[in-house]
Amino acid sequence: MELATRSKYGELITSSPGVASYAGYIDLAPDVHSFFWFFESRQDPANDPLTLWLNGGPGSDSLIGLFQELGPCRINEDLTSVLNPYSWTNVSNVLFLSQPVGVGFSYQEEAIGSLNEETGGFLNTSQANATGRYPILDPVDVGMIDTTDLAAMAAWHVLQGLLSGVESLAGNVDTEKVFNLWTESYGGHYGPAFYNYFYDQNLRIENGSIPGYSVRFDTLGIGNGIIDESIQAGYYPEFAVNNTYGIKAYNDTVYNYAVFANNMIGGCKDMIQSCRAAASGINGGLINNGQTITAAAATNPDVDVICSEAQDMCRDNVESPYYSYGGRGKITRSCSQAHLFRVLKKFAQLSSTTEFHIHTLICAQANNHRRCIRHPPPFRRPNTSNLLRRLPQHPTRPKRSRCQPKLHRRQR
Fold it and tell me: Which residue stretches of 62-186 are H helix?
């Protein structure tokens, strides 16, 4: 398999002279482009561990974690950046991914057009006036990464590409890097699946069955992980009004509605059971004592419709009232998610931003896309399985709620 790395080097965002960051794309295939943003540790990049951070969703870009949680900087109201003294880069190299492909700045193809701010969907030039170049998921029948297992494969190849090309990671010498994977929310699914796949591939590298760079596994961390929606969804309204912080995020009317939506006939729990029942009708579609729906069932159009309806019911009526009426993301912080993303969007569009190291952040949407990246020699790893051979033959296009949620509605 051949991986082409397109990246840009910079130091400004860390506010620490000599500390490097790299942003760009690793081309997993001619039409599968995965965006990454890597930051060296402020302390000792060569000897400090490597941490992969994944936001949840599914469909939440890990750049959310970069700018709002553990990254090296924050973005102020006046669109200037400020050092985050509590960043995980104080003690670790950190890798952020826009994943799976179709999320954030990872894409399959590009097209001239515009973005519908209400739907989050792409509009071609026959539908609206063009405002720039945008990433799209076309072609829909090739290269789509639409399951957690496939997303794990893609992320592993990105990690291998980084280990091969960043000297401070010591991947190009006989030194194993300590590796951590941290994630949140839908990471309750991402984390175990990714870690398991990474571990299996690492064993194959160590026994010589495949080429690559091995790592030394240390930590899998999951924050506020979603494991079983049928159990956990009902605790959204409970935690919103009965929590250890003494905060009542919404009033009794909203609380009663969310509780009813979870428990009523045709409600969240009822529809989850319908989803699982539909999956059980497919050979091998439901495993782990009825808790896990496999790709065999998920790729069936009829099962997909039923399970998508269950997902929408739970999110829109049980979970979303917290975000819509609570006026906060984290329970302890009153803020508007829509406002936060407007600030980040404006920051990414500043000329001072695009002229320095993070201008690759908007390459997938810039009209001068081909001029804002450089093309080093491709990283070659022969005799590895071709990622595209593992993709579904006829996948369905992911719905926005799965892969491209509206930023002002909800981000995990």
Answer: 63-65, 148-165
